[in-house]
## 1
Amino acid sequence: MARILIVEDSPDNMKLFRTLLTMRGHEVVGLSGGDGLLDTIAREQPALVLMDIQLPGKDGVELLHEIRGSEHRALRVLALTAHAMSGDRERALEAGFDGYITKPIDIRSFPEQVLRSLGPHVAS
């Protein structure tokens, strides 16, 4: 399966995401905020980043711009957000995210959403 980096400041959400993805065979690396993000990406070489948009300090959009301005610009990054109002998905995609998952997540569909985002090269 794949190595996935989750950037999420809620310990409860992190635990849930980690559990759901490791049960599917993924290796999960967690980061509670943006500090050290690019170093973590360089060290861990994730196939996908799941990023909370509302983080303390730099928000997910700012961190996404850092990724897109780095040597890791092609890395797939999905927005994780409680923002589910009309237009929020479009704004996230316009900001450069490769996908958008709303919180609270649906625990039944979340692993499949992540798997689809990884693309066809990852075995299911």
Note: The radius of gyration is 13 Å.
## 2
Amino acid sequence: MNHQAAQTMALLRSGKMINIGGRPVLVSSPRKSATGRSRIYTIQLALAFAATYIIWGSTYLAIRVAVATIPPLVTAGIRHSVAGAILLAWAYARGFRPRRAHWISGLIVGGLFFLVGHGSLHWAEQYVGSGLAALLIATEPMFILMLAWSMGQQKISRLSAVGLGLGVIGVATLTGAELTVKGSSLLALLAVLVGSFAWSAGVVISPKLKLPSDAVGRTALPTICGAAMLLAAAGLTGEFHATHWASISLKSLLGLAYLIVFGSVVAFTAYTWLLQQCSPALVATHTYANPVVAVFLGWLLASEPLTPRVVLASAVILGAIVLVRKGEQTATLPSVVPGSVRSFKQCA
């Protein structure tokens, strides 16, 4: 009897057709399917983080190239208009239909992310180097933690605090030499910091807004709303009138095309999806990796020297990311409300 019961249990686990009480029963194999879903999810996370780490690491240089002959707000406005239109058409083809509440939320997030965040960055890179801009953008995780803590969304563990501080030190070591370069505008430096704060605010409040649940639609609406505001700002500041369209270089056009396809469509879609899966502070670790990626791409593609200082700074930054990850695992969050960002433990 015990042997027959053991055989029945084995068949139940196998997921095959079995006979129970004279009736054929098809039993599924939940463990196997759950494992498959877990692996797919892990691969999706890895690819999304790779997009925000590697692609966004190269966009600082692409912005600098684009704004060399195209005014900054025009550059940002065209970039996000084309990207937003592509994403919105894609979402619409998938059956997404935005509601009024979605558009209102898109205006808020688009204003923070793109009008202030990207608009200030594109403008500032006329006067500061791309490496220095990346260093200042590295303040984003600190702003996020402070804002999330003030709103009761995040507790700052000791490991996270140490990791964030170590990351800033690493990025400062990596690009600190640019601080001595003459011609850097104080106003431009402040503009990048304001943009970093605005982006951080958008990250913190976006889970509380009625953004679409559809991943592509959730990306498309803020992008297209931000683009409209950027184009309006370009018109109000006279940038369209001052644009010499015949003088735009091929390099600037290629830089703009790269920003549209990879910087906006690919990387921002991955970034928005990650914000639905992981804690904001963990997602924001891309600001540590981006300067490292920029330096290594310069060494690989432009024969730039790879000095011991660069290697040391890169190691410090990677160590900071590890500490932030561990800090997110140990931090205890308040009870999660519907629509709020998941903790790192839920992400992993």
Note: The two ends are 43 Å apart (CA to CA).
## 3
Amino acid sequence: MTQAMNPRRSWMILPAHDPAVVMRYQEFKPDVAVLDLEYSVPPRAKELARSNLKTLVKSVGSDQADVFVRIDRDTRWADAGAATQRGIKGIVFPGPEEPDEVAELDELITAKEKERGVDPGTTEIVLMLESAKGFWNAAALAMASPRVTALGVGRIDLTMRLGPVPQGEFRLYRFLMTRSVIAARMLAKQPLGALWRPGSRGGVASKEMTAKAAREGKLMGFAGCLCATPEQVAAVNEGFA
């Protein structure tokens, strides 16, 4: 699968149930607009978020930003079914653990592409590793479908599963991040991740700490990361420049 020329450094999370918030992406100019069906959407708004995708992609899609949809692992079949349509470059799949899960997602996307007149094989899959089993199977997951174009590190869920990182101790996380970078580079996929420090991760990270996390991520071999807040986009673009 041929990747677009867009560098895809900053992947800005946008709650798909709230069109007003989604359209703010234009102020921050991310490389990738990620319409979210996962954490940023309350359970009661999930169906609304799915139904919004078709309209949102027409508004968000542009030459400046690729549009992806982050699905929820627990509702991935309904989410992926709604997300496979013209104008959406691909699907961000959080928490895969077995290659069969990726292969089955590929089959669903293939069927939906045919049903909706989407060019066959053009919908990409981005895998975000979030568990010990997922990291153990990193290479096998990435090889489970030719649609997989990126392999990333989901630090929030990983921390919840493995426990917080002790202050000043990064050996475990460096090992897991390095494992994902090696798998991605070996298979010619984009590695996504940043080296967040304790007390300054994701949504609570300042612009300065975000830029530092991105720069250190780049030194490890990563080429972009998800942005938990809009204000992180410029810092991520700077760090991965």
Note: The chain has a mean pLDDT of 88.
## 4
Amino acid sequence: MIRTQVSLDEQDYKLAKKEAKALGIPVAEYVRRVIRRALPSSGRPAWMRYAGLVESGNRRSSQSIDEIVYGDKD
């Protein structure tokens, strides 16, 4: 791991510290996670970062994906 130094204004630091505390992690780990989310994914297509974010409410939706995406066939 490479060590680096980042300067934050007081308000940003307070918010980062509050979020880190809520997650039960150090501020440094919180900052690493935020940066990781903002950077392009390594080797995966960009759309893959959104995979699994949409829920249909149907536990069997993967078996009828065409109907979910395109609607019922007429």
Note: The chain has a mean pLDDT of 82.
